[in-house]
Structures are given as C-alpha cells and as structure tokens.
C-alpha cells in the first residue's frame, strides 16, 4: 500500500486506487497510476475537458492511497469462508469507503474483470452495501489485445452501476500495443484518453463528501417496530 | 453450586449439535451416537461444576438437535444443579404457543433450572418447512415474542396479530413455575435490531462472538447496554450480557495445536479458510494450555464490560466424545475455578448477578410486596 499527497492549495480530495494487477511490474498498476496522475493534473474546474495540458494545479490537493489486491488476495478469499474480513483487508475497505473518489483497474481475464477484482468488490458489497453509493468511480482495464476493450462497458460498468456508484463517462482500456502507439492525431492515443478521463473524474470530486466513521448502525426504536405490526382496527 | 445460589458469572457449554466426520479417522458418528454423546456431555458439565448447558435447534443435516426440550427434559432428570438452556430457540418458525407450553413444562420438570435464548436461525429454507414466510423474518421475531411474553405473564389471553390465527380466552398450560417465566436471552451474531429488542424488554443479550472479530461485538453490546439504560431497566452495568468462547486445551500448548489443527482445518463453519493462527488472533478461539485459555477469556471483560454468562463451544467439528470429555474436565477443574476468582475480583458493585429462577422469584415477590404496601397506603 502506498500513498502520496500532491497539489498546491485548497482542501484535499482522497482518492482510493484499486489495482488488481498481478505482475510486478504490472501494466494494470501503471494504468492506475497514470489515471491518478491525470486526475491530479486536471485543470481547475474542469468537468469534461479533452486537454493535454499539465500542471495547472487543481482547486484541491489530491491524496492517493493505492490498494494492490494481490497483497490482500488470501484475506479476500478467507472472507468468503469466515464471513469477516481480516485486519489488512478491513483497513482497505475503510479506505475505499472514506475515499472521495475511486479509481478501479483490472486486467481482463476470460472476457471480464479478474476473479480477484470481482471478489474484492463482492467483499465491499457484503460488508457495507452503501460503501460505493454515489461515489465517483473511474474505470480502467488492461489486456493483451485491443479486442477486449468493451469489457469496460459490458462488465465493469454494470458491476459499479449495481453498487450504485457514479461511473465517469470516459473509461480507459489499455492494450499492450497502446503503450507504444504514437499519437496519429486521428484515434485518441492512450495518453489523451487518460487525460480526458482524469479531467472528467476531477470534475466529479468533492473533498470530504464521504467522511470517516459515517458508517453507524441505525436502529429503529422498538416501539416503532411493534407499532408497524399492530392490526388496524 | 445450587440452583438457588447467586453467581456473578455463569459458565457453561453450548452445543451446535453437528454430526461431522472425524477428519483424523474419516469416521462419521451415527445420529444416535451423536445424540447420546450430547446427553453425556451435558451430564459431564454438571459433574465438573459448570452452571449451564445450552443446545442449538436445527432442522437440517448435518445437525441433530431438532427437539431441544426433549433433550433438555432428559438432562433435567439426570442432573441436580445445571441450568438448561437453548442456543438458540427459533422464535421465527416455532409457534409461540408451543414455545410457551414447552418451556413452562420444562421449568416444572427441572424445578426452575431453565432459561431460553431466542434467535432467528442461520438458514433461510427453514421458514417454509414450518409454514412461514422468510420475507417476514424480523416482523415474525417481533410479533411471536410479544405474544410469547403475554402467554407467560397473563393467565387468559385474547390476542390478534398478523402471523397466526387469533386467540380468544386462551390459557397456556402449565403456567410458569412460581408465576415466573424462564429468563430470556436474545442471541445475535450481527443484528442491531436484536440488541434493541433485548434492551426494550430488559432481557439478556447473548453475543455469539466466536466467529467474528471483537470490534463488531463491542458495537453491538454497547448499543444493547445504552438502550437497556434508555428503557429504564437499570444502568448500563446492570444489563445482562452473555458471550461465547471456543477452546481446545492440552497441558502443553504445542500438543493442543497439533491435535486440534485437523479439526480446525476441516470444521464446517470456518474450515478451509484462514489458518488456525490467523483465526485465533482475530476471534475468541484459544488453542493452547489452560493458562492461555484463562488469559484470553479474562480479556473479554476488558472488551465488553463485566458480564453474566460465558458459554464455551467444545463438541463440534468431529472431535471424539472421549476428547470432548477430557476438555470439559480441564475446563471445569483448571480453568473455570480461576476465572470465577479473577472475574469476581474487581467486579464493580452494581454489576448485575447472573439470572437464576430463585433470584427472579425473590425479585417478583419483593416487587409484589412493594405494590401491596403502596396499595394499602393509598386506601
């Protein structure tokens, strides 16, 4: 787990960056880092930009915490057996819950997100069904071939729609070739897609929107529960 | 120990009643062997000086205890002092009329050595087996329990609700022993609604903390204590809390770990998941020497406050009867006497005593006497 703060002024936006990459180094992690960087560099007030510009500084600072799911893999699996998340996983879940925005990047496996990626978000939903409610989420996926790119729209978006997150309009798919392809000025190159996604994402972020410790059990007073059962006569 | 003596903290066993193959031999006991083993275990609990034996209620394999009061009635006849309880009685799918009758009857048979723990069960399919609708789980628990209380406290009941036919001029028999119904615990693993229900009625709250980390149960128990005080049943410290525990002991810590590991690794609830070491660091499970069990159990009061009932799970995951009986011997001879002493020391004045029938009868009589005096004074 790594974290860093950058930016110049204003309040701080907390970003959780979830990478389900399994290699070391991992192109999934690289895409996740590039998306976080693009968010940080997005020009102030930008909501839909298509900009290549760098270094404007946002109205807020960006604090990122990266969650590498490979480090949590066995705790994620154990959660399905025991029903409760272990210590490191608990703190990762808290990071996700309290983040102002989430960047979620997975490699493509068998026409979808990886099983590890899905399992992590299963645990997110199991432990707190509101953990992602109304939270801006920027999606990314990586694969060996450009032919898997619709995994973003056909697998990832429905998952996050189900979890009631707000997905950023631009999601970024990076095939192996994309990392080397020059900008031909016609098809949007990977760096341009990353910048556009970061700009759209930055426009959706509000510092402090999901405060820490907000998850408390609310109890309906017992009289109310009893009253609901009284026959009407 | 007698049923009339007061105890600050009761110790006992709770059995899930699973029929599980012994992973070291591959042999599965028959239902008959397992049922007889549970009865032997309960008698052993009394023999070594424990206070309580509680059985689960399940209606699907691999579990056998579908008829708790039948088993507890037998145990009542073979014991003198042991309090007989459940963990848990399904308040959702049992007819409250039948619960009222069965447990009042058990009170008479056992001379008051009876209490009961309400729960909603752990499996959805049980609802239709008893003609109930799973979508109504919580409302069923609320309505059935409200009716059960009336059946125990009012001699003649007129009642109408949502989930069963109305009652007109109904008297549940026998009436509770000495006019005092069995003490009720509400068991829960995760629901704050159940903590709220227990607090509302001033009943006990049993947090079955054996499978999950303690942070979760701290919140549930604090909620129960706060609400108990809110509803005017006494201070937070007077609230009645029960906890679970799970132990495997040998004189030598390494021997305990070596012997228990195959049972842990293949246990029905958490097997094939985390390692024994991970699980012991996250949950109350202790595998080690009696001294280690004492030390870990003593941390419970620091986490949850002084409490009234401690139940241990000892007889699951295919452990042979002989081993279980050895475990209960160690628990009764080496662990519980030390825990009784340590837990009594430094227990704040004003902490509730563990509930017994005798104490509850005395309290009811005192309350009636006070009511009489008041009545005379106003005449």
Topology of this structure?
The complex is a heterodimer of chains A (233) and B (379).
Chain A: E1 2-6, E2 12-19, H1 27-41, E3 61-68, H2 73-82, H3 87-98, E4 101-109, E5 112-113, H4 115-127, E6 136-143, H5 151-162, E7 166-167, E8 172-175, H6 190-204, H7 222-227
Parallel strand pairs in A: 2-3, 2-4, 4-6, 6-7, 6-8
Antiparallel strand pairs in A: 1-3, 4-5
Helix pairs in contact in A: 1-6, 2-4
Chain B: E1 10-15, H1 31-47, E2 52-55, H2 68-78, E3 83-86, E4 89-90, H3 96-109, E5 115-119, H4 126-129, H5 137-153, E6 157-159, E7 167-170, E8 183-188, H6 192-201, E9 204-207, H7 214-230, E10 241-249, H8 253-265, H9 276-282, E11 286-288, H10 290-304, E12 309-313, H11 321-344, H12 357-378
Parallel strand pairs in B: 1-2, 1-12, 2-3, 4-5, 5-8, 8-9, 9-10, 10-11, 10-12
Antiparallel strand pairs in B: 6-7
Helix pairs in contact in B: 1-11, 2-3, 3-5, 6-7, 10-11
Annotation keywords:
heterodimer, A: 233 residues, alpha/beta, Rossmann fold, eight-stranded mixed sheet, 36% helix, B: 379 residues, TIM Barrel, ten-stranded parallel sheet, 12 helices, 12 strands
Distance between the termini of chain A: 61 Å
Major sheet size, sense and barrel closure of chain B:
10 strands, parallel
Biggest interface between chains: A-B, 21 and 30 residues
Total number of strands of chain B? 12
The CATH homology group name of chain B: Luciferase-like domain
Mean pLDDT of chain A: 87
CATH topology of chain B: TIM Barrel
Shape of chain A: globular
